Structures are given as C-alpha cells and as structure tokens.
Amino acid sequence: MGVPFFDIHYNLDEGVRARILKRWQAILEHGRFVNGPEIEELEVALAEFLGVPHVVGCSNGSDSLVLALRAAGVKPCDEVIVPAFTFFASAGSVSRIGCTPVFADIDPETFLVSPESAASLVTERTTAVMPVHLYGRPVDVGALRAAVEKAAGRPIAIVEDAAQAVGAVQADGPCGGLGETAGFSCFPTKNLGATGDAGFATTNDAERAERMRALRQHGGGRQYYHDEVGYNFRMSCLQAASLLEHLPQLLEWNAARAEGAAHYEELFAAAGIDEVLVPERVPGHVYHQYVVRAQRRPELQAWLGEQGVGSAVYYPLPLHLQPCFAELGGQVGQLPHSERAAEEVLALPIYPGADAAQREEVVAAISAFYARQPA
Ligand SMILES: Cc1ncc(COP(=O)(O)O)c(C=O)c1O
C-alpha cells in the first residue's frame, strides 16, 4: 500500500480550500496586502488559543526567534546557550544578531536540552538560554531556569524555540508563555502550517510585545521614525488568512497526532522490537514528529524506502559540528548525547492524515527488517 511520510493535503480538503479562497478574494477586494486586518485578527485568535496574551505575527519561525531574542534583551556579543541537537535556525538566529551560540548537550531520554549541561556553560557573557520544544515535547522551563540562574547567580532570559510546539503545554503553562519570549513557525509542514512561510512571536509582557511589533517593521512604532534598527519581518496577509482557516482545526489535529503516538506505542510493544526505542508519552506533547531511536538506522531507512514507507532524519548533524560553526571549536565527542541522537533518530509518519492501517504497515515493515537482518 505504501505510507507517505507526510501529505500536505490533510489540511486542504474542499471546505478549507473554499474558505481560504474566500478570504483571499476578500484581500484582493480590500487591497491592504501588507499590514491588513487579517494580521491582527490572527494575532488575537492565536493569543486566545495559546493562552498567551501577546502574539506578534511575522515572516517565518526563524525571524520570530530573532525578534524574541532581541525583545528578551539579548545584545550583540552576548552568549546564548542553545541545544546542539535542534534545527539550524535555533542557533542561526543567535548568530544573526551578532551573538555567540554556546552548545549544550541534550537529555538522552527526552532529546531536550539538559539543564545540567546548560548550567555548566554559563559565563559572564551569558544573557539567555534557548530551550527548544523539540518534536513538540515541552521543555521543563522552570527546572532549566533554576539550573542556569543558580549557576549564574543572576537572572538569565529564557527564549523558547517553540517552532514545533504550537498548542503544547507544560505543567507550568503553555509553550510560548514559559519564558520571557518565544518564537513559533507556521512552515507548511508544522502542526499549524500556512500555505507559504509564516511565523509568530509571543510573550506575557506588553512592553516586549510592543518592541517586537516595532522590530518587525524597521524598529519604529511611528512610520518613518526609527527608535532602533529593525527588519522587514511582516507576515503576508494571505498567510494570515490561511492560518485563520486552519486554526479552528488545530486542537483536533494535535489530538489526532497524540492518538497516533499512543497507537505506535501499542504496536511497538506488541511487536517486541528490541532494536527500536520509542519516545516516552507525556501530557502536553503535540507530536510534531514521532521519533524513535533505531539501531542500524541507515539500513532500516533504506529498507523502509524500498517498502514504500516514508521516514525522515531530524537531524543528522548536531550544530556544534556544522561547518558554519567550526570557528567555535566544536569537537566530535564533546556532546555525546547529541551526537548519538543524530546517528539513531528516525521520524515515522504521524501527520493527522496517516491512519491506523498505515501505522500498522510502518511497524510491520520495521519488524520485518529486524527479523530478516538480526543484529
Ligand atoms: C526547532 C525549529 N526552530 C526554528 C525553525 C524555523 O522556522 P521557519 O522554517 O518557519 O523559519 C524551525 C523550522 O523548521 C524549527 O523546527
């Protein structure tokens, strides 16, 4: 039968398409293509959905992190602690504002930044830590903050990379409201995906929100007057319109992902595959990805491909070993948990359009691989 890793059309049925087109038609009519009314409408709807008071729509998730870092008070030449095992943009955003990313290791059980590793890297120049809610699993930001502030002996800003975690909730509150500021991505494959690039930043603090609004539009609250140098990070109204049509289904989609994860857990338990380690299921996780650790991953992934089963590797090379960060002196062996994760992780189909029969096919194919080629 074959199982695609992802199919964008799960969120584009006829009804949704018609509603998006209607909104796009309305934009053509009103003609306010930039800074049109859809932006504020979306910001208000997202704030209510997330339970975080201030939402600032912007061009994409990468840029939202730049806004979030600057509004958290991070200045050029500061150091920002970032997990080494994440998407490039987490650290890229730090470099883009003239700061140094300092790479922390992850907890091997959760794939999330290790508070102990982060605390061990605090220096006089550290002003922020960026926890990444990787794969949609919320970081315990309170524990992280306690560890790094104890090491520093002063406040350290927490800038959440919530790009993969829209709707995720931790015991202390919603992702996006756990730190000083946060950034989210609405890249089309995300849990809340646009029909192009889009993102947004969040904060509980009205002043920081105002600063992010100014920064996304060249750093001025008033047209042609600039308090600081900002950017053109505005969100397209067409994207805001698509997101407004997708948002009402997000709860249902996130629930479908969590059901998919529970089903995978049952299937793997029944199959008894020793070579595969499934992720722990935790409340508040939104399963942007369902990621297992697999022995002989390259061979397994090739085999799955031959069986028509899609899979993906997020991420094959930790950031401290990326060529662009070579001057920071990262060495193989320095962050062993990140390096091992990069060799073992495999993401399986989890998008809301994937059904139970397809998950059965995925696990049967994995089972067949290890049965044919025992270690
Ligand atoms: C963890 C993480 N941070 C940041 C980003 C950047 O988001 P965007 O692609 O919308 O710029 C992504 C997107 O994949 C991500 O997964």
Tell me the span between the first and last alpha carbons.
28 Å
What's the total number of strands? 12
User: What CATH first level of the largest domain would be assigned?
Assistant: Alpha Beta
Number of continuous helical runs: 12
The number of domains is 2
CATH architecture of the largest domain: 3-Layer(aba) Sandwich
Unreliable residue stretches: none
Tertiary shape: globular
Q: Main beta sheet, described?
A: 7 strands, mixed
For this structure, the CATH topology of the largest domain is Aspartate Aminotransferase, domain 2
CATH homologous superfamily title of the largest domain:
Type I PLP-dependent aspartate aminotransferase-like (Major domain)
Helix content: 25-40%
Across the major sheet, the strand order is 1-9-8-5-4-2-3
Beta strand %: 5-15%
Overall pLDDT, averaged? 97
Short description:
The protein has 375 residues and is an alpha/beta fold. It is 39% helix and 13% strand.
Written overview of the protein:
The chain is α/β, with parallel strands linked by helices and 375 residues long. The chain folds into 2 domains: 8-104 and 111-248, Aspartate Aminotransferase, domain 2 (3-Layer(aba) Sandwich), CATH 3.40.640.10; 250-372, Aspartate Aminotransferase, domain 1 (Alpha-Beta Complex), CATH 3.90.1150. Helix content is 39%, strand content 13%. The chain is built from 12 helices and 12 strands. The protein has helices at residues 14-30, 37-50, 61-71, 88-96, 115-120, 141-152, 206-215, 237-246, 250-271, 297-306, 336-344, 356-372; strands spanning 54-58, 79-83, 100-104, 126-129, 157-161, 169-170, 173-174, 181-185, 199-203, 276-277, 290-294, 345-348. The chain has a 7-stranded mixed sheet, sandwiched between helices. Strands 10-11-12 form a 3-stranded antiparallel sheet. The protein has a two-stranded antiparallel sheet with strand order 6-7. α6 links the parallel β4 (126-129) and β5. Residues 60-62, 86-87, 89-90, 132, 161, 163-164, 185, 187, 197, 199 line the site of pyridoxal-5'-phosphate.
